[in-house]
Amino acid sequence: MIKPAAFILLSISSLLPFSASQAVEYEFIGSLGAQGRYFTEQANDPQQTKSQLSVFAEPELYLQWNDGDDSFTAKPFLRVDSADDERTHFDIREAVWLHVQDDWELRVGINKVFWGVTETLHLVDIVNQTDGVESFDGEEKLGQPMVQFSLFKDWGYLDVFILPYFRERTFAGEEGRLRGQFKIDTDSAIYESSQEQNHIDFAANWRNTYDFLDLSLNVFKGTSREPEFVAKLDSTGEPTGELIPFYPQITQFGALVQYVNEAWLWKLETINRGGDTIDDYNAMVGGFEYTLVGIGDSTTDLGWVVEYAYDERDANEVATQNDISLAARIVMNDIDSTEILAGFSQDLEFSDSRALFIEANTRVGDSSKLIFDMWLFSGDDPQDISSQFEQEDFVQLSYEWYF
Amino acid sequence: MFKAKKQSSWLKLIVASSLVLITASFASHAEPANKGLEIAKERKARDQGWGDSESVSLMVLKNAQGDESVREMRIKALEVQGDGDKGLTIFDEPRDVKGSAFLNFSHVNKPDDQWLYLPALKRVKRIASRNKSGPFMGSEFAYEDLASFEVAKYTYKYLRDETVNGELCWVIESTPTDRYSGYTKQVTWIDQSEYRVQKIDFYDRKKSLLKTLIFDQYKLYLDKYWRAHKMTMTNHQTGKSTDMIAKEINFKVGLTDNDFNQNSLRRAR
């Protein structure tokens, strides 16, 4: 295993102007930012905040040697939140050594891997745990310890993973928002496997491109990234009102297809998940993205994203059991790279259950971004798990500076 | 009789020479029909065999008020025989897009394959191939302006000779064969000394003049290949312009197909 300290010393020696060795190249970049969130309604639990401010830092150190055939990337992350103790958190997003050969690559360390093609839901993506306190849309992930061996041949790309340590999902704390009415006691998480977080998981992914068609098949065996919840009991056996995450052992098969045809991108992700303590189920998400370039003689592109999600589990277990999403993506193609994504999701089973979202960002000056997010929820049928968010409408403004 | 005979021979001579002249003038009218294509073929032929290259480039975006914004990128390119070239563009500036990378397989007879890598999400996104007429990085260059030149992408018509940038040029009208091109036609000035492009006028879908691209600071590489170190694209309709400046170009750096796939896109730095 590579010792990072040794490489930092090497990189410092390469900083010296008259250093004889130019073998190790380094790069230090990253971002710092501040974020404000405002919730328009008071939550049921009076402890929960109505607004929160936070700051974050995500520096990145990159070293390479052997003409770039070997490299090491370290990317810690820290957020400090004014209201939510659980959202104040530190994570190592990446600390990974990469070795590259002609037709294979090896990664050892903490890293992030993304599988998927759809926009509204990342069904197939399973290697990394979701950082649930970081963003509402589930796009932020925790660093995952792994050994990843990648092979590139005529028949496609094959990635094989050994995942020796499990990361628990993060949830908002008592004072935090976007947790629904239940407090989740992450310190008491329970596991199907007696090895708990030390269970070794395996995953493999094959993908290839055939002209206009992208195909991918994958398999995962190990601790489910998605917990189930059980009621926490006190010493007398009475429920405390808190929930405990339970992480079962699962086997998941995933498949995804993407077809490009002129201005259309057709997408489909499907999974089958089974295990000894869960019912086997299938789920899918699919749809299209259609882009109009240069609308009304301007340089603005308008893209339509339409996706439908189906899950065999009940609405009280999963929000995307029978839902359709429609969104418009406006890309201004201006100097400040302004983009706006606005849309809504509608539950087809519970007609009152829907969510409206806007994500917009633009560059400010040479190296800063201003990002606006808004989520509005409606639907109060207790049979639908998304009714948990009924009072969680929020607006969020973030400023990020890149160095 | 003699007189008449002589007259008739004069007549014959006149008729014959008129015919020659007419034929010659037909010939000179017929010539431009494929002269444009011949020039395009020679332009392509003279630029074959460069293999692979790596360059560092700046784009300086200017709006009508003169405000400037800078993009910095590195471009790796691989020549593909019998098809369009492969390109990998890695962005360094602005800082918020640092590490983003764009992979392009240019094709002659079908739409290009394009992928974009987003480092924050570790995600490779395929780009719908019809987006080629869109602006590249908010600049006045469209994706298609930066794709490799392939003879079959246009039909050609020679217009005239004209001197531009101090070079005697052939002026050729090129009509894109791809119906998703953002242009109805391009008028290209190619110099007669080295078959280098000196200037291109782009006409939009309404057939009005949209942009002009001027090539400047040509340098010779490997004793054969000319590369412009400065290209200035001016948009006549918005008053905006973009300078594309090549700071450094290196040829035959040893790139192969393996440097232009989705794996290399994911780890591009």
TrEMBL record, chain A:
Keyword Signal: yes
Domain of life: Bacteria
Signal sequence range: 1-23
Keywords (A to Z) from UniProt: Signal
Name assigned to this protein: Phosphate-selective porin O/P
Lineage, broadest ranks: Bacteria, Pseudomonadati, Pseudomonadota, Gammaproteobacteria, Alteromonadales
TrEMBL record, chain B:
Keyword Lipoprotein listed: yes
Keyword line: Lipoprotein, Signal
Pfam family, any one: LolA_like
Domain of life: Bacteria
Span of the signal peptide: 1-30
UniProt domain Uncharacterized protein TP-0789: residue ranges: 85-267
Signal in keyword set: yes
Name of the protein: Outer membrane lipoprotein-sorting protein
Organism listed in the record: Catenovulum adriaticum
